[in-house]
Amino acid sequence: MQPVADIDQLVPMSSIRISVVIATCNRARFLESCLNSLEKQSLDKDLFEVIVVNDGSTDSTSQLLDDFKKKTSIHFRYINQENRGVSFARNVGIDNAKGEYIAFTDDDCIAPVDWLKKMYQLFSQAGENVAGVGGPLDCITMNKDSYIAHFIQFIDEFNYIPVLRKHFIRYVHTSQLKGTEQIPYLRTSNAMFRKKYLKEVGGFDVNFKRPGGEDPDLCYRLLNKGYSFHFDKDLRMLHCSREKFADYFKSLKNYIKGEVWKSRKRHIYNNRIVRRSYQFIIAQKLLSVLLSFCKYPFSVIKLLNDERYSCLERVTFPLIIVASKIYALFVALFFYVTRTKRQLLFV
Judging by DSSP bridges, how do beta strands 228-231 and 130-134 pair with one another? Predict the structure, then answer.
């Protein structure tokens, strides 16, 4: 069933330039902070709208959205649908958007007050070949002194940005970026795209039901059309990070599953470096495990003089990295084998 937007909340198409799309499912405790941050944006309120696609939530999300709609001063709509996955939900948001630009963020993100204004300015300076602009994430945790909070700070994963090198995709820390790098994809927790280009490639692949791989796939298909992306390391977004290690490994599982699915469809990516990056997923994961073992003692030695962490953290954090690499290898093996068997059944 095709969701229908509330007619009384539609605004004149000429006044809206940006549509912020958020897909959410059972994340009411984060969503409220996200919406409040969008309400405080410094960009003229007549220039943007916010669309939340409620993807079958069973918590208090519906009530939260209804309450926010009644009190907010921004152009706001929400769409309820049965659970179909994050990619399907974002596509619904794109289809209902009034703006020529679609900004994406996640329900567990908090936007700085000038977030939309900065992206709007970046696009005003960009050529027509630029399909999207984006930036990094700064992770925040409820308990900054907890063990998991220190680990998230240690890995600093969302400040490592994919860069196209001569033979492969390499992840480079934002502090090392020079601004001339070719970025193969943007993370949709902090990005804005031209709507017409999203429609041109058919939006997100709905086979990616959970967050993890849907944004690179979208961008690779935009690369196929000859479009490019602009990454600004100063365009930052706050991300409420995982509070438990179980959540960390759950997210890792989703990302690995997404990598395996991209490896099965890599033939549709025109960029040879992108195709090569997903050609030998299992071998890459095995090599990553071996390298993590080799790096372990050097990582511990490097941390010995880092006073931000306790003695226990200095020893165990690199060990958790090793464990995560082993976990990623077995997850990749599982999804690769099961997907291969499933494909053979339908040959």
Answer: parallel
Which pTM was predicted? 0.90
Q: Please report where in the chains the tokens 């372990």 appear, as a residue.
A: 296
Show the DSSP H helices in the chain as ranges. 28-39, 61-71, 86-96, 115-124, 147-155, 195-200, 214-224, 245-264, 272-277, 281-303, 311-345
| Helix orientation angle between 311-345 and 245-264, rounded to the nearest 10 degrees | 40
Gap between the Cα atoms of 321 and 292, Å rounded:
7
Tell me the domain boundaries of the chain. 245-347
- Contact (CB, 8 A) for 16 and 120: no
Residues counted in the chain? 347
Q: How many CA atoms lie within 13 A of 224 on its CB side?
A: 17
Q: How many angstroms separate the CA atoms of 234 and 134, rounded?
A: 10
What pLDDT digit, counting tens, does each position of 268-291 carry?
999 999 999 999 999 999 999 999
- Predicted confidence at residue 296, as pLDDT, reads 93
